[in-house]
Amino acid sequence: MRFHDLRHTSATLLLGRGVHLKIVSEMLGHSTVAITLDLYSHVTPTMQSEAAVAMDELLSQ
């Protein structure tokens, strides 16, 4: 396993657990969150679904 593979796995797991994009971006040393988002956007479908559920719960109160 290459070092890059470990970086990628770590970032994917952290984003999947809901760690803020800015924090993950800083940990990876990216100059902008846009770079992180471009590289790890495959994590966002689950995050988008969870955000929709959270918004529904908020609005249903």
How many DSSP H or I helices? 4
**Ends distance:** 47 Å
Structural class: mainly alpha
Low-confidence stretches: none
Largest sheet: none
Order of helices and strands: HHHH
Count of domain modules: 1
Radius of gyration, taken over Cα atoms and rounded to an integer in Å: 13 Å
What is the count of β-strands?
Answer: 0
Strand content: under 5%
Q: How much is the average pLDDT?
A: 88
Helix content estimate: over 70%
- The shape is elongated
Can you tell me about this structure?
- The chain has one domain (3-59).
- 75% of the residues lie in helices and 0% in strands.
- It has helices at 3-16, 21-28, 33-40, 44-59.
- α1 (3-16) packs antiparallel against α2 (21-28) and α2 packs across α3.
- The radius of gyration is 13 Å and the shape is elongated.
- It starts with a helix and ends with a helix.
- 10% of the residues are buried.
